[in-house]
Amino acid sequence: MKTSIFTYTSKGLPVPAWHFNNNGPEVLILGGVHGDEVEGVIAAQELLKHFMNSNPYKLNITLVPQFNLEGVIFKTRGNGNGVDLNRNLPTKDWSPEVKTPRYHPGPFAGSEKENHGLMTYLDEKKPVYVLSLHSWHPVLNVNGDCRPAAEVLSRLTGYKIDDDIGYPTPGCLGTYAGLERNCPTLTYEIERGLSAEKIIEIHVPAILESLKVLE
Q1: Which distant-in-sequence residues (6+ apart) come within 8 Å of 91 by Cβ?
Q2: pLDDT < 50 stretches in the chain
Q3: Which helix H or strand E contains 149, and what residues bound it?
Q4: Residue 104's CB: how many other CB atoms inside 10 A?
Q5: Dihedral through CA 179, CA 215, CA 116, CA 138, nearest 10?
């Protein structure tokens, strides 16, 4: 295990990553893309504890528990600039339209420092799987060929698998990585408001089991 600075926040804070290398395919796990979605952060932090104690997978796992560190600190969806990092990536469908402040896409595509580090990582490492931990209505949103992992998660959680979140998401990670760069991406929407105990009891073991199909 080693640590690194994955990227920096809009105000210059370092965003740490943990790397668990076992000579296998590269996998990225993100928590806290939206700082007010604590359920994903809880799951990511619990995964970190697990990997530090036991990591039997034949995978190279990069784990970033609090990608939007400023949002996590201030309990906001956006970063310190008020930008929704999951609407800011330079996808083909990126739009400058600000429908509501919560979904602010930024002054231009890829404007935010946090995403600079993410984009560099994707270009250099080309992960075979990206797991992005969010919270909303329960759903496993797949972009690219990650259905085997999604099917394990669905079986263990009862969550439905869908390749359409149900509304437009210009500038999102699923499109940028999963559809436009062949890095299959699963956006895991944990039930909003679920207790930490239930997240640790149900969702963390499901994630750990789903990683086996990637080996």
Answers
A1: 109, 170, 171, 172, 175, 176, 180
A2: none
A3: helix 147-157
A4: 20
A5: 60
Annotate 11-75 with DSSP letters as a single string. TS-EEEEEEEE-SS-EEEEEE-SSTT-HHHHHHHHHHHHHHHH----SSEEEEETTSSHHHHHHT
- The amino acid that residue 99 corresponds to is K
Predicted confidence at residue 137, as pLDDT, reads 96
Instruction: Concatenate the DSSP letters of all residues of 117-132 into one string.
Output: HHHHHHHHH--SEEEE
Please tell me the predicted confidence (pLDDT) of residue 99. Answer: 87
Torsion sign over Cα 195, 18, 71, 107: negative
The dihedral through the CA atoms of 91, 93, 94, 99 has a sign that is negative
> Buried b vs exposed e over 11-33: b needs ≥16 C-beta within 10 Å?
eebebebbebeeeebbbbbbbbb
